[in-house]
Amino acid sequence: MKFLVTAGPTREPLDPVRYLTNRSSGRMGYALAGAARHEGHEVILISGPTVLDVPPGVDFIPVETAQQMYEAVRDMLPGVDVAVLCAAVADYRPVVCAEQKMKKGAERMVLELEKTPDILGSMRDVFGFRGVLVGFAAETQNVLAYAREKLQRKQCDMVVANDVSRSDIGFDSRENEVLLVFPNREEALPKDTKEHIALHIVEHAANLLPRV
Ligand code: CTP
């Protein structure tokens, strides 16, 4: 099977030396790409900037902004069986990016932001993707309810939800504890390394293929 994985944060530039970003190490996405390759799948990894090594045997497409990630996903999608969108995409970007470094001035400054393209939300209706679609939901409360709502709204086959208010898992951590949410059921994966969690997610996603 052919997997496409998005990972890491995006960077939305304000000027040549500054950007807005999201908190993400990229570890979960890189673990997913590595796990899918380990299981014998063909893998395209589209990633924002991270310090991680690209897993061997994976086709790697580095990007910086949400717009670049959107275009890379759209362009690489033909032939993909399973898309796992794990990237922490910035939801907003500065309306203008200054050509030169902005200099200090007034005591206060207002930044005008606009929405970035919603990659996960474009998969079905804009890109016409018919394969297995896996989204991620990082929540700080009502994890199951929000994940189930996201599953339906974004027309996913599975949403991987985690509680980012916990400091022992998730961000910057080597471990995670997630809830896999399917249209008719959910399954809690106990706390484990991101590599082990990734293997479970890849197996579940691959098993969904004949049904879509
Ligand atoms: N995502 C995406 N493109 C964006 C923003 C998010 O593809 N511009 C994807 C992420 O990769 C993740 C999922 O959407 O798989 C969840 O992102 P999140 O920001 O939590 O979801 P939203 O639907 O934007 O919901 P909300 O902001 O209401 O929590």
Description:
The protein is an alpha/beta fold. The chain has a single domain (2-207), classed as Rossmann fold (3-Layer(aba) Sandwich), CATH 3.40.50. 25% of the residues lie in helices and 30% in strands. The chain has five helices and twelve strands. It has helices at residues 27-38, 66-76, 119-122, 143-153, 194-208, and strands at 2-7, 11-15, 18-21, 42-47, 59-62, 82-85, 92-94, 113-115, 132-139, 158-163, 175-181, 186-193. Helix 1 (27-38) packs across helix 5. The longest helix has 15 residues, at 194-208. The structure holds cytidine-5'-triphosphate. Cytidine-5'-triphosphate is lined by residues 6, 66, 85-87, 89, 91, 116, 118-120, 135-138, 150.
Which bin fits the share of residues in helices? 25-40%
For the largest sheet, list the strands in their spatial order: 5-4-1-6-9-10-11-12
- Domains, number: 1
Going by CATH, the architecture would be 3-Layer(aba) Sandwich
Please report which band the strand proportion falls in: under 5%, 5-15%, 15-25%, 25-35%, 35-45% or over 45%.
Answer: 25-35%
**What would the principal axes of the Cα set say about the shape?**
globular
The major pleated sheet works out as: 8 strands, mixed
Looking at CATH, the homologous superfamily is: CoaB-like
Residue runs with pLDDT of under 50 for 5 or more positions: none
Query: What is the level 1 CATH name?
Result: Alpha Beta
Average residue pLDDT: 94
Instruction: List the total number of helices.
Output: 5
Kindly report how far apart the N and C termini lie. Answer: 14 Å
Secondary structure category? alpha/beta
| Small molecules in complex | cytidine-5'-triphosphate
CATH topology call = Rossmann fold
Number of strands: 12
